[in-house]
Amino acid sequence: MDRSLPRQLTVIAAKAAIPVAATGRDLAPKLSGRLAGSVRPGGSQRGAVVRAGRGAVPYAGVIHFGWPRHNIRPQPFLYEAIDRRRDDVVRAYETGIRNLTGGLPK
User: Domain-by-domain residue ranges, the chain?
Assistant: First the structure.
């Protein structure tokens, strides 16, 4: 196994997350725009990830999942983004793995 394989898998995963993050930013509620601005793609050896929120936007999870006790309805914009971009993610992984393996047949 090539020593660079873990890093290459991370790069493939991060590239696969990019279209989902872009759509997530478009679908995020935009009262101030800070939530949409906090949506970002990422990757690891285990898979692609899209994150929303950070220290300045601690309410991302509450907006996405809701908080019934406080009458906040869920707005699952990231789930909607992955539903819309699923084919793009699969294509990105297929292309990345094919390039990594030297173009094995489909």
Answer: 5-100
Contact 82, 92 (CB under 8 A): no
Cα(9)–Cα(61) distance, integer angstroms: 28
Which of 36, 34, 43, 17 shows the shortest CA–CA distance to 77? 36
CB-based contacts of 50, cutoff 8 Å, min separation 6:
17, 20, 21, 24, 39, 40, 41, 42, 78, 81, 82
1-56 tens-digit pLDDT: 577 888 999 999 999 999 999 999 999 999 999 999 999 999 999 999 999 999 99
Whole-angstrom distance, CA of residue 17 vs CA of residue 55: 22
pTM of the entire structure? Answer: 0.88
* Residue 61: Cβ within 10 Å count: 12
With vertex at residue 10, the alpha carbon angle to CA 9 and CA 13, rounded to the nearest 5 degrees, is 85
Q: Are 50 and 21 in contact (CB under 8 A)?
A: yes
